[in-house]
Amino acid sequence: MSNEKASDLINAVSKISPIAVVQEVRNCLDGGRTEIEFSTSIIAGNTVNYSIYCLNIEDEKTAWSDYLNAVNLILDLAKLKFSDLE
Fold this sequence. Notes:
The protein contains three helices and two strands; from the N terminus they run ααββα. The model has no long low-confidence stretch (mean pLDDT about 85). Strand 1 and strand 2 (about 45-55) form a beta hairpin. With about 90 residues, the protein is an alpha+beta fold. A two-stranded antiparallel ribbon has the order 1-2.
């Protein structure tokens, strides 16, 4: 991963609002869980983990838009698309 892509991902993850993650409420019968975990280092680093149930591509217009943006950047780095998660 290039320094530029790493910086983009760090910036995207830092924009995720914990309040937005927990305040967005929806009913979902058959959804999947999407998790992002990041830390200051691999060994004994401070870790933050976000987990969202029922994330979908339409969340670009909800409180989860920053989370979705970070997920899409991760998928881009893995050469995957959001539809590959289904």
